[in-house]
Amino acid sequence: MTLTLRLHEDPAALDADAWNALLADCPAPTPFLRHAFLAALHRSGSAVTATGWQPVFMTLADAHGTLQAAAALYLKRHSYGEYVFDWAWADAWQRAGQRYYPKLLGAVPFTPVPGSRLLARSDAARATLLQAIETFARDQGLSSAHLLFLDDADRAAAQAQGWLMREGVQFHWSNRTPAPYADFADFLASLTRDKRKKIQQERRYVREAGVTFEALRGADITEADWDYFYQCYDNTYREHRSTPYLTRAFWAEVARTMPDHWLLFVARRGGERVAASLVALDPAQRVAYGRYWGCTEAIQHLHFAACYHEPLDWCVRERFVRFEGGAQGEHKMARGLLPVKTTSAHWLRHPGFADAVARFLDEETAGIAAYVGELRERNPFKSEP
Questions:
Q1: Which CATH number fits domain 4-169+341-376: 3.40.630.30, 3.65.10.10, 1.20.950.20, 1.20.120.160?
Q2: Which of 201, 315, 318, 369 counts the most CB atoms within 10 A of its CB?
Q3: What is the pTM of this model?
C-alpha cells in the first residue's frame, strides 16, 4: 500500500473524526490521545512552541485519503513534563560538545499514562510510521527520538526496528476478577490486617475532622467547581516552587469538549471547600486515572482520602476494572495499588552515544527488575490478586 506522509504544525487542524477513528482501532486507546484533548493542549497555549512543545504531528494516508497511521509528535527543547527522565543523557551529550535539544518526542504532554502511541490500522502501517519517525529525526539532524509509555504493539514494533527499550514502574489498582469487589469493605477485607487498619484509620481521621466528599461527574461539574479545582491545582505547583503546566483555558476546553471523561471529588469542612481531586475516566474501557489534586486547607491524611480512598470507593461502586495512580509513589501500595512496569522506546542517532545508553539501560533494567521483585514481596493483599 502506498501511503502519503504529512506533517502538521497545528493538531487542532486535523480531522477529529478521522483521528479518533484511528485511535479506536488501536489496542490501548486512552482519552488523552483523543483529538479534543490534544487540540486543547495546543489551543490553550499549554503545549506549544513557546512552552517548548513544537507540534509536528505525523499522518500516513492511503490513496483515498483515509488515515492508516498517525502519531502525536513534538520537537522538545527541554525534558520537562515527560516523566521518563533523560536529563543525564542530555547532560552527557552536551558535555561532549553535541546538541541534545531539540529532540523528537512521541507522548501526551504532561500525562504519564500508558497506551497506544503509534496509531495504526495494521502492523505494517505501524512499522511504516515508526520508520518515518526515525527518517524524519535523522533528516532533521536531531540527536534522538523517544516514544513514551507504550502499549505492547508499539513496544514490539520498536524492538523490531532496533530501538532501545527502557522500563519504569507505576502503581495501578485492579478490580477483582472474575467476581468484582461487592463494596469498599469487601476490598478492604482482601488486604492484610495492617494495611486494612491503616486505611480505616486514615478515613476515620478525615471523617472526624469534619470532612465530607462530593463526587461530581461530567456536566455536574460547574464552572465554579472547575475554578476551585484550578485554584487547588495551582496551589500544588506553587507549594513546590513550580508553575502549572496546564492553563485554566485548557481545563475550560476539555470540560466543554470531553465532559464524560472527568470526575471531580470536592472535600468540604463546615460547608467550605478544602480540597479537590480530579480523576480522568475512560467509560468505554471502565478505567480511571488519578490526575491532579490540591487543597486550600491542610488536614492530615486528606491527600490519601481525596486521591485514593474516595476514587477507589467510587471505582468499586461503578464496577470499574482499573485505577491508574500515575507516576511513581511507593506509598500507593499501602492503599492497594500494585507495581506495574511501563516501557518507553528510544532512538539515538550517534552510534557511540546509542551504545553507551544501551549499556546504561542494561544495568537500569536489571535494577528495575530487582526493585519490582522487592515491591512484590511487600504485597498489601492477603494473597496475590
A1: 3.40.630.30
A2: 315
A3: 0.95
